[in-house]
Amino acid sequence: MGTEKTRPESTVLSDRQKHRVTEQLRHEQTTCAGCGSGDFTVGQALYVGFLFLDEENGNYMVALTCNNPECPAPRTGITLHESAFLDVG
Amino acid sequence: MYELDFPVWIRITHWVNLLFITLLIRSGVEILGTHPKLYWRNDSKPGTEWARFTRKTMPTDKLYDTLDEEESYSSLVSMPGHKQLGLGRHWHFFSVIGWILTGLTYVILLLATGQWHRYWPYSWSIFPTAWHDLLTYLSFNLPPLLPGQPYDALQKLTYAFVVFVLAPFQILTGAAQSPAIEARFPRYVRLWGGRQAARSLHFFGLILFVLFIVVHVTLIAVWGWGMLTSLMIFGDVESRQWAIVLSLVIIAAVVAVHWAATKYTLRYPRRTQRALGAVVMGVRKWSLKPLVSKQNYSAAELSPEHRVNGKPPISDDYKIMAAHNFADWRLEVAGLVENPMTFTLQELQELSGTQTQRVLHNCVQGWSSIGEWSGVPLRTIVELVGPLPEARFLCVLSMQDSGRDEPSAPGQGQFYEIIDLSLARHPDALLAYEMNGGLLPIEHGAPLRLRLENQVGFKMAKWIDRIEFVSDYSGIGEGMGGWREDNVFYDKNVEI
């Protein structure tokens, strides 16, 4: 279905890139706002640096899904600069 | 033989025309200033303009929209000036109604009384004579009048051109910029070379009118201000001194009307919006509103870069939803309905009767682009929820907080637009979730936007998350029928 397609603004991350995101989460001790868990599945990255007025160039909203099956709000995200997880030049 | 004199109706329509044409010119400049670029191609692609009346440059590393490109012109040249497109549009469309009625009166009486002979070129020889007249003027001399006529050959041809060619040309190219007319009669717009070509030609018409007025007034002064204004005020040349005084009084009165109207409009924009809007929307209601889209542009005509107006919501909730491809997004449809419903994006996509339309998008600012939009017909949703008998309007609410998200638009609060229930039942009213064969891009309103093909773009709310059926909208916002109607004085029904 349409919701499974990649959005034109999104980037599918490689395993290495997802690993770097996970390292960032661990480093920043990020937890789920819904349940407090720190266990996430990393999804696609939406480039927000161009589209949104309040974002700096190079920023992405990386989709995170809380792995706690009891979590009331499992879909969340984190804003990261491309240098933190993408393989830039 | 007809006596080509200056009967009272010619004199009255002449001076009334002066008022309306000058209002049209100034309000036209206001409209031009809101998108101060002119194109030949329908897509209005940035950088392809053949003329620009702005020094602004747009960023390449950040989303900008056409509100950022808007210019603020002085009230000396625009009506009312100071970046007031909504009010400028009211004045333009109010004035055009008065101008057309004046023109129709003039032409009908011209034909009925035989005064049309003053414009009819009876012989081909008038053209070389007019050329000779032009050379005579350029040598700072006055050519002879045509025998038994009030004009020389050049004047006769010029007046005939202005009355029978330039004025209808402006009306026709103006009409070609109406989304309702473009949608119903797409071939008509093609006749002019497209929407932007019509806009450019309309601009040339404005320039010709300004040139005509300048030359006309100059030549009156050269030929004899007292004599000619006496003819145009008293119908004879006997009262030249009085005519000089009175002509200056009339011109001063026209200037005073402009000054007062401008001051009043800027001081009381809401009253102006209501008063002029009542006239303008009354005319549109029976002339343009019933028109239904018949357009179907080819895939080859799709704009490679569809222009954008409005900026996406900057809330984290929205960005997170977008990053997850709007899996958590919901459309709530409620209010005066039998069955309030909530839809996920997937549920909307699975509704039967997906509709695709390739259409010309008209922004209220004047630019256009061609896009392909797919989604669920709005009438399908209307049928599913079942409006109660008292429901008359739909309030379409956006996730955009305009004060926060759109610094180039003055005003605060959640964006919304009111549309008539009858418009929601138009076959081309669409809730679009796809564009050009792919998912609807964020800058174009993802996950869901409205398409109303006989309206200008701002009515087509983007980033929609709620639709409320209501019986009355006077208590919503400022009660004018939408965020832009409330904040920047646009008109609620915008078929042109």
UniProtKB/TrEMBL annotation, chain A:
Residues 1-23 are annotated as: Disordered. This is Uncharacterized protein.
UniProtKB/TrEMBL annotation, chain B:
The keyword Lyase does not apply. The keyword Zinc does not apply. Keywords: Cell membrane, Membrane, Transmembrane, Transmembrane helix. It is a multi-pass membrane protein. GO terms for molecular function: electron transfer activity. One of its GO terms (cellular component) is plasma membrane. SUPFAM superfamilies: Oxidoreductase molybdopterin-binding domain, Transmembrane di-heme cytochromes. Residues 325-472 form the Oxidoreductase molybdopterin-binding domain. One of its GO terms (biological process) is respiratory electron transport chain. Residues 6-235 form the Cytochrome b561 bacterial/Ni-hydrogenase domain. It comes from the Bacteria. Its main location: membrane. It is found in: Cell membrane. The chain crosses the membrane at residues 12-32, 91-112, 157-180, 201-222, 242-261. This is Molybdopterin-dependent oxidoreductase-like protein.
